[in-house]
Amino acid sequence: MSDKTITPIRKPWKGVMTGRERFNAQMHHQPFDRSVNIEFGYWSENFELWPLFKDNDIVGNHEVDAFFNFDYMDGVWGNCGMHPGFEYEILEDKGDTIISRDGMGLISESPKDGHSTIPHIIDWTVKTPEDWKRVKDEHFNLDDPARIVDIEAYKKHQSPDRDYPLSVACGSLIGNVRDMLTFEGLAFATYDYPEMVEDMVEVRCQLVENFLDQVLGEFDFDFATGWEDICFKQGPIVSVPFFRDIVLPRYKRIGDKLKAAGVDLWHTDCDGDVRLLIPMFLEAGLNIMFPFEVNSSGHPGEMLDKYGPDLRIMGGVDKLELAKGPDAIKAYLETLGPYVAKGGFIPFCDHRCPPDVDPDDYIFYLDLKEEMFGMK
Questions:
Q1: Which of 80, 95, 184, 213 is 20 to 30 A (C-alpha) from 253?
Q2: Nearest to 206 by CA among 110, 136, 151
Q3: Gene3D superfamilies recorded for this chain (predicted)?
Q4: What are the residue ranges of CATH 3.20.20.210 in the chain?
């Protein structure tokens, strides 16, 4: 963590509750003084193009929360993924692009200047059950000492009377499998090698369970987090029956551990159209959708109306409307007002804010959000 001092350009929103009290009240549909004030982040280009960031030497998302005085949250994480990873290696320099192998074992071509784009995947490591057996033995050892959580180190940064919400990270069951196999590879593998994919999901589940067994009971967590990115604009990448039969039972195992520890709020970061998966997420106890991309999943109010208090949403502010200027921003936020007031919904940009949003309009958005959802 950098020792750099960040000078905020905004005052924190006024409030009479602590951040921890507010988050729990808002997410449990109880009275709250004002909305939680957070944002998801920004494209890397924003830090190069927005004078707002350049002039104040703000160089990354890790600095913005302090810069805008957003509400503070913290979390406890474990090593629930591949370890050790593959060694990063540049395989070919093609002038404007490079071909490299990343830590997941994927070989891809990407722009040398590092601008935000999806790399072109050329090849990947796990294609057959034999590949998976080798990678599993070398990179997914449950007894790896790196998977032991340093509880005391985390406790040094927490206190029993903390005034902010604390999360426990539950990793990914199928999204990281998609990362290893690629979109195309996963699509084929669910039919060609379903037992292999199920074992990959099972190993991920065991890693999360191993982590949770170490930390649940050691901290008073307010919510759980996760990451999947298992959907695209037209729905889930895997079939609904596959998700129901293979992924859902493992999610239930994790949900049972969380519930037994008193953690009843759980969100996953899943892009794309999540609507077909929501019933299964809710069945497992995963009850907060994040960041709820509007142009895939629709207006957040539609799902909040459909599922009532069982479902919560964090995000849901259409990034495309932010790029259209103040009138569009105001019109869209007004459609969210009743849902914020009802509870169970924390509004912010429905993914990282892109650079085509004018920084002056973004400040207008932050001001308007405070006016509408801050303490009256």
A1: 184
A2: 136
A3: 3.20.20.210
A4: 19-81+125-373
